[in-house]
Design brief:
Elements lengths: L2 E7 L5 H12 L4 E3 L8 E8 L6 H5 L3 E9 L1 E3 L8 E4 L7 H9 L3 E5 L8 E2 L2 E2 H6 L9 E14 L2 E8 L5 H11 L4 E11 L2 E2 L6 H9 L10 H4 L5 E3 L2 H7 L5 E2 L13 E5 L5 E7 L3 E7 L2
Parallel strand pairs: 3-12, 14-16
Antiparallel strand pairs: 1-3, 2-3, 4-11, 4-12, 5-6, 7-10, 8-9, 10-11, 12-13, 15-18, 16-17, 17-18
Length: 295
């Protein structure tokens, strides 16, 4: 079984738990996910099955969208509602203008410190293991890209946000940083990933649905083909001769008919004349270099 599943992860499960359950349900060992969600979080978790594990890194690199609720006035050691309360602060509730001004300071290219309770490794040891032992060290700030933050609701002390960002952004850290900038402190209370690349919560299926389909012998109907999973990358159709070169890993000339084609990260799908996916390739406007060959 080869393909991609768009799963609506429930709260209370780790991303690894979801993978393990899918392995049992589908009786398939080769399954991976494309971007960890904390146990508290729900929403889009893309699973790659069989040969589709080869495209995981390309799917994981896609833009993310989250709906987050944060609570002002309380900080925790995990930066979310599952952690130990560190401090309860007295603060003056900000008005909408102040909120919008502060929130916009966190858009664009910023520096962000990963939470102590995260999988970031410190001298080879996951940070969360050190944190559990009381030996956590502050994680060094790293570049992060946030495309937009929309304030969707504010009923003190709860603040609701929609965040569009690149891979690697910690929404827990973002909420804590916004809370500090408001001189109130804050922690994340609820998080849903609504988009990951081209995958949306609107088309995600639950684990219960997947299990039911597997029991009925129709789990393949929930599977997204490798070609369709890569749909964010435009298609270039090659001649038989050029296709033969690509499937052997060789470069070919970039077709003049596609000059000016807008691509994401310089990646394109290569099809043969019958519409079959041959390769995921990178181009520079002059040549096409296959990165993954599927046929």
């Amino acid at each position: 079984m080869d393909g991609v599943l768009n799963i609506n992860k429930p709260t209370g499960m780790t991303s690894h738990d979801v993978v393990q359950l899918a392995r049992r349900v589908l009786r398939e060992k080769k399954i991976g996910h494309t971007g960890t969600l904390d146990p508290l979080a729900t929403g889009v978790l893309v699973l790659c099955i069989g040969k589709a594990t080869r495209i995981a890194q390309y799917l994981e690199a896609g833009e993310k969208e989250y709906r987050a609720i944060m609570k002002l006035g309380v900080t925790t050691d995990t930066l979310d509602a599952e952690g130990r309360v560190l401090e309860t602060r007295t603060y003056v509730a900000p008005d909408r203008g102040t909120l919008l001004h502060v929130i916009q300071q966190f858009t664009g290219s910023i520096m962000q410190s990963p939470p102590a309770f995260s999988a970031v490794k410190i001298e080879g040891v996951p940070s969360y293991k050190l944190a559990r032992q009381g030996r956590a060290k502050p994680n060094k700030p790293r570049p992060a890209t946030i495309y937009s933050i929309d304030l969707t609701a504010f009923e003190d002390p709860l603040l609701s946000l929609t965040v569009r960002c690149a891979k690697g952004v910690y929404i827990r850290s973002l909420c804590a940083d916004i809370g500090d900038a408001l001189y109130a402190g804050a922690h994340l209370t609820d998080l849903q990933r609504t988009k990951s690349g081209s995958f949306s919560i609107d088309t995600a299926i639950t684990l219960e649905t997947l299990a039911g389909m597997a029991e009925a012998g129709i789990a393949a109907a929930a599977m997204i083909s490798i070609d369709d999973a890569l749909a964010e990358f435009p298609v270039i159709e090659l001649s038989t001769a050029e296709a033969g070169k690509v499937i052997h890993g060789n470069k070919v000339e970039y077709p003049s008919a596609h000059r000016g084609l807008i691509t994401k990260r310089g990646l394109v799908r290569i099809h043969d004349s019958l519409g079959r996916l041959l390769s995921l390739a990178r181009h520079d406007g002059i040549t096409i270099s296959p990165e993954l060959v599927f046929s």
